[in-house]
Every structure is written in C-alpha cells, then in structure tokens.
C-alpha cells in the first residue's frame, strides 16, 4: 500500500481532495473558469487590483465556491438517495428540480499570532468564511409542492459547517475583507443564475442554489453592508431607526434597508452632492460609511 510509484499516490491523493468530482454548470458560470479539478487556491486570486489599490498585505487560502459546494453535495450523496427512497420517489425520474439552501457564516477567529515565530509579517487575526447545506428539496414534474429530502439536523454544529476561505485579516479591515471576499461574492452571484449538473446516485441531476446570510453576527453584517460600527446612533442593521427612536418604539419595525440602497447612500456620502456639512451628510446616509460589498439577506436562521 505504501510503496507505490509516486504518480499512483498522486492520483490517489487527488481523489481525496475536495473538487475532484466532475460537474458542469448550465449556462457556464460568468467569469469563473470551467475547470473542476481545482484544489486550494490563493484567497487573493480573482481580485483585480486598480491603479491606486494598495496590494492586500495578507495570506489567504480558499476553495472555489462551486468546487466546495459540489464536494459538499457529494458528501451528502447517500443522504440524498435515502431521502428520495423515504419519500417514495423513483430516483430514475428525479433528475431535475433540486433546490439547495445554503447558510453562509463568517466571523473573526481572534488573535492567532505566533508567540515566538519568525514567519512572514501578517495581521495577527484571522477570519473564517464557511457555509452549511441546510436543506435539499425536490419539486417533481407536474407537482405543485416541493418535497424536502434532506434537512441538516444540527445546522449550528461545527460538524456540518464547511470552511470555504481562511484569511489572516482583522474583521474590521473593510478593504482587505472586500478584496478577499469580493471574488467569492462574484462566484456566488454567478451560481444564482445557473444550474449545477452533477452525478448523484449514478445519474446526472440538476441543482439550483439559494444562499442565506444568516450566520453573520452583527459586527460582520455591519462590516459587509458598509455600516457604521456598533456604537453608532443608527442601531439597526435592517432599518434606519436611531437609538432615541428605538427606545420610544420597541414594536413597530419594518425591514427598510436594502443592499442597493446602501450602495446609493455610500455614493452620496462619497460625493456629497448637496455640499452639506458632515453632520447633515451623516444624517442623510443614516450610518452608511463604507462601500458595502456583500448582500446579507435578513432571514431567520
């Protein structure tokens, strides 16, 4: 077993790597290469630097998002087939109409500095972006309702949570986070408009993905939506209420913020079209002070 020629070991090793499963997207993903045997990549790849960008001084490693999702689905292959059997569905007719709900999570991992190390100088904090496959449904042809064939029993467990990207960066460093997670977001956006064709249980089946950003804590949501930090007068990440307003009214709140609106407000903050004072301008943009780079969807976990 051990004394084998190197190339045999290499290929055996490759099959154990996530991303060794053949698959395709229809239509092909925009701006994402179609090669599927991609292993661990540099977290900064895919980031196109502009002239005045300072190169991000960090080390980051990640899987390509689609490769990681395929790997996760292949891990659940038996569960999917079992789910079809339990529901009395004939697996040979269930080849399309699968939808997968993915929960995204991202958080800082605190201080990870080497106490006596002599490695490269990098920020001494780390951030991990990960995802969990929450459920898989199928809507059989001619049927009205979708049927759940897989539901994650422990959605908040470490065991169901799959790391996608690890980076040496402080979670408050908006620019570097944008640089690293920007390409991840672009890949996610591309996948929303396409279907994954993957062999599960010996047959090619097609999957659509839905992403829910419910695994971020408040600090991260503020960071990704370009909002002021938690000490801000604007207390809510979903609406524009101030501390004073919120203390008067604890009940009637509606979700009024949207990602697009935050982007418009950032532009306003940047250009100050009405030549207002800092105070007036701040009141106009309601606590948006950086360019948001990730859309976090307000749904309950």
From TrEMBL:
Residues 24-96 form the V(D)J recombination-activating protein 1 pre-RNase H domain. It comes from the Eukaryota. GO terms for molecular function: double-stranded DNA endonuclease activity; histone binding; protein homodimerization activity; sequence-specific DNA binding; ubiquitin protein ligase activity; zinc ion binding. GO terms for cellular component: DNA recombinase complex; endodeoxyribonuclease complex; nucleus. It holds the Pfam family RAG1_DNA-bd. One of its GO terms (biological process) is B cell differentiation. Signal peptide: none annotated. Residues 1-22 form the V(D)J recombination-activating protein 1 DNA-binding domain. Residues 100-232 form the V(D)J recombination-activating protein 1 RNase H domain. Residues 234-296 form the V(D)J recombination-activating protein 1 ZnC2 domain. This is RAG-1. It comes from Leptobotia pellegrini. The gene is RAG1.
């Amino acid at each position: 077993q051990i004394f084998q020629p190197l190339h045999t070991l290499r290929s055996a090793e490759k099959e154990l790597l996530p991303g060794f499963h053949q698959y395709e997207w229809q239509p092909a993903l925009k701006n994402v290469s179609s090669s599927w045997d991609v292993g661990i990549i540099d977290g900064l790849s895919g980031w196109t630097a502009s002239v005045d960008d300072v190169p991000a001084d960090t080390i980051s490693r990640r899987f390509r998002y689609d490769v990681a999702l395929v790997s996760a689905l292949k891990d659940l292959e038996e569960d999917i087939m079992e789910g079809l059997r339990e529901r009395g569905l004939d697996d040979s007719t269930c080849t399309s109409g699968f939808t997968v709900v993915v929960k995204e999570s991202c958080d800082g991992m605190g201080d990870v500095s080497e106490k006596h190390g002599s490695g490269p100088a990098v920020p001494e904090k780390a951030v991990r972006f990960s995802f969990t496959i929450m459920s898989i449904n199928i809507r059989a042809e001619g049927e009205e309702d979708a049927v759940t064939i897989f539901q994650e029993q422990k959605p908040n467990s470490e065991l169901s949570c799959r790391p996608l990207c690890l980076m040496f960066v402080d979670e408050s460093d908006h620019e570097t986070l944008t640089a690293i997670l920007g390409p991840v977001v672009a890949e996610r956006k591309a996948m929303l408009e396409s279907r994954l064709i993957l062999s599960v249980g010996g047959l090619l089946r097609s999957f659509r993905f839905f992403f829910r950003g419910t695994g971020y804590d408040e600090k991260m949501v503020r960071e990704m939506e370009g909002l002021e930090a938690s000490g801000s007068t604007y207390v809510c990440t979903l609406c524009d209420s101030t501390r004073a307003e919120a203390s008067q009214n604890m009940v009637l709140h509606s979700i009024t913020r949207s990602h697009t609106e935050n982007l418009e407000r950032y532009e306003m903050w940047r250009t100050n079209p009405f030549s207002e004072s800092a105070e007036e301008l701040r009141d106009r943009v309601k606590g948006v002070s950086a360019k948001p780079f990730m859309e976090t969807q307000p749904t309950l976990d």
